[in-house]
Specification:
Elements: H1 2-15, E1 19-24, E2 38-45, E3 51-62, E4 65-76, E5 80-88, E6 109-111, E7 114-123, E8 129-133, E9 139-141
Antiparallel strand pairs: 1-2, 2-5, 3-4, 3-7, 6-7, 7-8, 8-9
Amino acid sequence: MRLADEARIDRELAWRPHLGFEITFPASADSPVISPRHVLITLSNVGNGPALSTSIWIYYYDNGACGWDKREDLLVASKQTLATVGIPLDFPGPSQAEFPTGMFDPPTNRRHNGNWVFVATCTDVLGNHWRFVHGRSAEIVRPGDNDLPPWTQWL
């Protein structure tokens, strides 16, 4: 069994996507102040495999105001940088009944007077599901895994 596990891991590494974020909070032409309601994300895949069905998730909370949004069905090829995706946040955001519980960990990244969490999810060519949380290690869920983390229900 150990040899089979090693072969699976080698195959996963050969086809693994690895997503990274570059995050910009632009000032508008009307105001030089950075807006917490708009963020630009540049997503790069530095892995060897494509990131299929990629979604970018963003959550913001500050002094009782919160918002979340996502962009879906992006494809980021291996060694490719996806053009910057602008995500405007509308407060209070989508209905709390639609809030993707389990997708976001409690906000811990301090940014511009607010707490931000940036997440990208994707599937690789082997059917594995990946979650990349900005500033943390990647998480993988393989087909057939029994103990699924809560974020997998949103894929």
